[in-house]
């Protein structure tokens, strides 16, 4: 045999060196109990032999009777019925009382005892069940001794007063009672307590079965001895009874098997459904939540049902590594609990299919026999746990605990069904655990997502209320996506997440909120420490990222909010802290800072923004929102070609609002369609008014990203042109490069429909994007508008001057009209004229004007003339 089996368990459980394990103590106590039972039986047998007078029997009759009785005992044990005594202990009730009753009639004590021992102990030795030979030998001697002693006492007590068979019947009945009492004592010795409420029903069931068997044995002998042709009748009756017992045993076995299957399925699934998975929980190598301890319960339940001395449950990890090994019953010998017993090294674990393998030492191949010997067992049932051809684990059952037989067909079928249930339950648990994990984690980075961060941060803030929530925004994401595609942008996000994890440690709650935005719960003593950490995180994130053969420069902004300053009576709200950190990020970005702490005054800005959004529709209806117009003039002949419609809002509380303040808020709230429609309607009304006066002046309306993604927008524009009776060429729709590039697949079809209607399309703020040249050829546009930042810088920056000249040349090469915004002085106008720029717009010509002031400007600054096509035009006065 290999090393001491207890050593492995001691090492696994951390039991002190030199101190016996609980299983060793139980085995020693059972061995001592077995010796006590054997000694008690020998003493009792000696007393019966010497003090009870033997009945006279012929020597030849005794030999024949002994042989027949031994055969009867062997046959009776094969019809045994197993009853669960306690978790981990099962008692086998056989029908040895029937041949015993006959033996009390026909054979002396020593013959019956020898036959019983020969049948019982001989079978144990043949099966090589060595650890229970002492106990079973003592129990058998006590059973036969008690039977003969009680039979003699009853005969003496009832001599001449009762039937002659009363003593045999009473002696036979005492056997199952004594056997059960010995079993209950063994349960106590093994340390598995059993209450009176469980012991009494067991004793009652055993007594009922003993009554039946004793009666059958007595009746069988009386019929055989006194009836004509009695033995054939007895054989037929016993055959029918045996069939009845087999059927009953089969039904009982099926019931126990079904209960076991249900229990195992419930045990596997119960923890996954009842436990609360936290966002900080990770999945272990078996696909279940770390910390669950249901696997020892499952292994113990399988061992109880199979009545095995040991069950080994091996759970294979998905990634390369050692399997998780759970042992119920006798500990595994040292060296058999890790990868050294893996499928490649152990012939018992080479399981190509999904069926059960039954190995016996007596008929095994040499390598299998060696594997069984290394486990210290005589036989083993091995079955894989498979799901969709994926090996989840292996179940091993070693050495059946029955006093007589080993594993049979029913055991093979049962362990196979159990394995199927366990594999299915494991697969379901893996799926449930994966779904729960995905619900709290970002699929790209593996970090927490927003719900996961909310839960993890809430739990930590209960214990550590003095903490800070940091929001970190990586600002290079759109640039990477536009230039290299979303795959490279995702790689950058993953790299940034790794840097943050390395910086804050493995225990701090860290989440990816969206895009390049991350959140961290930071334990800091004060705001100064939080700022130092925030700036350090920003510096680490802003370090260059190697992307393929390129190096991408990144920037980051950090905002942080203290949880201690949260004064809500309901406690700390993580979402509110994240919103405050977001406010701090925006404040830092607008102020050009790397990191900034949230201040209560910052919240007023966003409260005002919220108020503007909620009041916008009523402002449209009440006349607070109006349209101003900024004229556009041809540089060649100073003709007023059109105006750009610009929205203005005079708030009753806040006064005149800058469009840059409320337009983004309106767009983010999904109200931009209403704003675009309002401006377009007012502009078309103005164009219709000019047409009625004989003037052909166009109006330009700015479009939003949402307008370009709306497939019904061209229909609404066509309806508005038709209602106002305005030619489509007098309406210009201005769009930005970023608006088109946000979703080109949706924007381009909308633009093509508008262009086909005859509407003039202009690219606003041209030159500020990153894909201008690539997209300009694809866009169905008629104009390009040079961004005013380049026009304003022409006089002082030669680079801006070169950009403007290049845009003018590019636009003309593509047969586009070129419009310059931000013309504020004569030098800029003259330079643009010299370059061949077509149209100018800016403060040099006019500021944006209200409807009435625009009419006054037209009267004062222009004069009417009729061109060669008999059209009335307005020309700017010198």
UniProtKB/TrEMBL annotation:
Keyword Cell membrane found: no
InterPro entries reported in the protein's UniProt record: Cyclic-di-GMP_PDE-like, EAL_dom, EAL_sf, GAF, GAF-like_dom_sf, GGDEF_dom, Nucleotide_cyclase, Rev_trsase/Diguanyl_cyclase
Alphabetized UniProt keyword annotations: Membrane, Transmembrane, Transmembrane helix
Highest taxon, organism lineage: Bacteria
Transmembrane segments: 30-51, 63-81, 101-126, 133-154, 166-190, 202-223, 229-248
Record Gene3D superfamilies: 3.30.450.40, 3.30.70.270, EAL domain
Coiled coil: none
Domain GGDEF residues, every copy: 465-601
GO molecular function annotations of the record: cyclic-guanylate-specific phosphodiesterase activity
EAL domain boundaries: 609-862
Protein name stated in the entry: Diguanylate cyclase/phosphodiesterase
Organism: Herbihabitans rhizosphaerae
């Amino acid at each position: 045999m290999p090393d001491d089996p207890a050593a492995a368990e001691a090492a696994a459980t951390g039991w002190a060196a030199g101190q016996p394990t609980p299983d060793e103590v139980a085995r020693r106590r059972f061995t001592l109990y077995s010796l006590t039972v054997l000694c008690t039986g020998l003493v009792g047998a000696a007393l019966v032999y010497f003090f009870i007078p033997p009945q006279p029997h012929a020597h030849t009759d005794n030999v024949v009777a002994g042989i027949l009785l031994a055969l009867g005992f062997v046959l009776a044990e094969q019809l045994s019925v197993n009853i669960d005594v306690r978790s981990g202990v099962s008692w086998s009730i056989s029908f040895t009382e029937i041949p015993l009753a006959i033996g009390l009639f026909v054979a002396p004590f020593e013959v019956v005892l020898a036959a019983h021992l020969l049948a019982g102990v001989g079978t144990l030795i043949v099966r090589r069940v060595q650890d229970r030979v002492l106990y079973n030998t003592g129990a058998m001697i006590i059973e036969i001794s008690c039977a003969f002693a009680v039979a003699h006492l009853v005969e003496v007590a009832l001599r001449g007063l009762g039937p002659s068979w009363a003593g045999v019947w009473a002696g036979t009945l005492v056997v199952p009672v004594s056997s059960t009492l010995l079993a209950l004592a063994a349960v106590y010795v093994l340390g598995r307590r059993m209450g009176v409420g469980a012991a009494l029903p067991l004793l009652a069931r055993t007594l009922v079965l003993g009554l039946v068997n004793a009666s059958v044995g007595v009746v069988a002998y009386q019929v055989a001895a006194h009836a004509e042709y009695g033995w054939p009748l007895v054989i037929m009756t016993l055959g029918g009874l045996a069939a009845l017992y087999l059927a009953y045993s089969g039904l009982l076995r099926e019931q126990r098997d079904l209960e076991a299957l249900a229990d195992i399925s419930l045990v596997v699934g119960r923890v996954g459904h009842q436990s609360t998975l936290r966002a900080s929980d990770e999945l272990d190598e078996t696909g279940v939540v770390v910390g669950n301890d249901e696997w020892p319960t499952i292994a113990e339940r399988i061992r109880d049902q199979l009545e095995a001395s040991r069950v080994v449950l091996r759970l294979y990890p998905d990634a390369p590594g050692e399997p998780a090994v759970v042992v119920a019953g006798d500990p595994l010998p040292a060296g058999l609990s890790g990868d050294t017993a893996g499928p490649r090294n152990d012939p018992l674990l080479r399981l190509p299919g999904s069926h059960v393998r039954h190995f016996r030492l007596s008929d095994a191949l040499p390598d299998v026999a060696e594997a069984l010997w290394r486990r210290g067992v005589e036989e083993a049932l091995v079955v894989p746990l498979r799901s969709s051809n994926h090996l989840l684990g292996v179940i091993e059952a070693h050495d059946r605990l029955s006093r007589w037989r080993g594993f049979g067909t029913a055991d093979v079928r049962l362990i196979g069904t159990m394995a199927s249930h366990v594999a299915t339950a494991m697969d379901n648990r893996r799926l449930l655990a994966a779904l729960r994990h995905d619900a709290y984690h970002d699929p790209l980075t593996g970090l927490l997502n927003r719900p996961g961060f909310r839960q993890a941060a809430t739990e930590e803030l209960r214990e550590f209320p003095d903490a800070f929530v940091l929001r970190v925004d990586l600002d290079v994401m759109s640039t990477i996506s536009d230039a290299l595609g979303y795959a490279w942008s995702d790689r950058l996000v993953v790299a940034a997440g790794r840097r943050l994890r390395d910086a804050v440690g493995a225990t701090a709650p860290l989440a990816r909120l969206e895009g390049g935005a991350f959140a961290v719960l930071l334990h800091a003593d004060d705001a100064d420490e939080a700022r130092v950490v925030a700036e350090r995180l920003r510096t680490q994130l802003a370090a260059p990222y190697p992307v393929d053969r390129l190096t991408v420069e990144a920037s980051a902004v950090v905002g942080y909010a203290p949880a201690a300053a949260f004064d809500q009576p309901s406690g700390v709200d993580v979402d509110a802290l994240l919103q405050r950190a977001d406010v701090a990020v925006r404040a830092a970005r607008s102020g050009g800072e790397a990191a900034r702490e949230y201040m209560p005054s910052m919240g007023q800005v966003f409260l005002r923004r919220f108020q503007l959004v909620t009041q916008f529709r009523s402002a449209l209806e009440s006349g607070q929102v109006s349209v101003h117009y900024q004229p556009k003039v041809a540089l060649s002949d100073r003709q007023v070609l059109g105006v750009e419609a610009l929205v203005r809002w005079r708030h009753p509380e806040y006064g005149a609002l800058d469009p840059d303040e409320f337009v983004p808020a309106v767009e983010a709230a999904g109200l931009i369609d209403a704003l675009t429609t309002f401006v377009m309607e007012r502009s078309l009304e103005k164009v219709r008014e000019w047409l009625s006066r004989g003037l052909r002046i166009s109006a330009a309306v700015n479009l939003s990203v949402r307008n370009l993604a709306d497939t019904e927008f061209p229909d609404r524009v066509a309806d508005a042109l038709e209602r106002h009776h305005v030619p489509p060429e007098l309406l210009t729709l201005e769009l930005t490069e970023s608006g088109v590039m946000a979703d080109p697949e949706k924007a381009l079809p909308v633009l093509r429909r508008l262009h086909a209607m005859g509407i003039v399309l202009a690219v606003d703020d041209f030159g500020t994007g990153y894909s201008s040249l690539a997209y300009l050829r694809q866009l169905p546009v008629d104009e390009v508008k040079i961004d005013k930042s380049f026009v304003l810088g022409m006089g002082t920056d030669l680079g801006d001057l070169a950009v403007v000249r290049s845009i003018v040349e590019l636009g003309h090469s593509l047969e586009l009209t070129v419009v310059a915004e931000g013309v504020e002085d004569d030098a800029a106008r003259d330079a643009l004229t010299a370059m061949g720029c077509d149209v100018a717009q800016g403060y040099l010509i006019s500021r944006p004007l209200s409807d009435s002031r625009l009419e006054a400007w037209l009267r004062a600054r222009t004069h009417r003339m009729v061109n060669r096509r008999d059209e009335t035009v307005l020309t700017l006065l010198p």
